């Protein structure tokens, strides 16, 4: 479990409305390994933690995506199906928790009628590769009560 408390990546979303979709199967039987956060297209997507944007990437499944590392380079936060990046987003950019980094959309294999943020957390391996890591369920982290 991540020791740091993360911000919700989509402002205005009630944590109680989130659903744990981490273990749901996807086409071809692949695991989801993430949480989907529904929101209107164009809603801001915020950095959940301080850190660095490691990769801006476009993929067939994820569409417009951002990979962000935490300050210790232990965890990678993956934001997918974005409509677009924030105007100043770039690889290597330091970000603070709550900074706008993109906007909710339905790019990639997301349905145009179902804009949402696909959000994943991975614990990075020794090589610190943005595309590799051990998946961690974001649901209990994003819905945890403040201590």
Which descriptor suits the 3D outline? Answer: globular
Number of strand segments: 9
User: What is the arithmetic mean of pLDDT?
Assistant: 90
Proportion of helical residues: under 10%
The helix/strand series, from N terminus to C terminus, equals EEEEEEEEEH
Tell me about the largest β-sheet.
Answer: 9 strands, antiparallel
Percent of residues in beta strands? 35-45%
Query: Which regions have little confidence, pLDDT < 50, spanning 5+ residues?
Result: none
Distance between the termini: 15 Å
How many separate helices?
A: 1
Radius of gyration: 14 Å
Structural class: mainly beta
Task: Give the arrangement of secondary structure elements.
Elements (H helix, E strand, L loop, with lengths): L34 E4 L5 E3 L4 E9 L3 E7 L5 E11 L8 E2 L4 E5 L11 E8 L10 E3 L2 H4 L5
Antiparallel strand pairs: 1-8, 2-7, 3-4, 3-6, 4-5, 5-7, 5-8, 8-9
Task: Provide an overview of this structure.
The protein is mostly beta strands and 147 residues long. Helices cover 3% and strands 35% of the residues. The protein has one helix at residues 139-142; strands spanning 35-38, 44-46, 51-59, 63-69, 75-85, 94-95, 100-104, 116-123, 134-136. Strand 3 (51-59) and strand 4 (63-69) form a beta hairpin. The radius of gyration is 14 Å and the shape is globular. The model has no long low-confidence stretch (mean pLDDT 90).
Observed structural traits:
147 residues, mainly beta, 9-stranded antiparallel beta sheet, 9 strands, globular
Q: Briefly, what is this?
A:
The protein has one helix and nine strands.
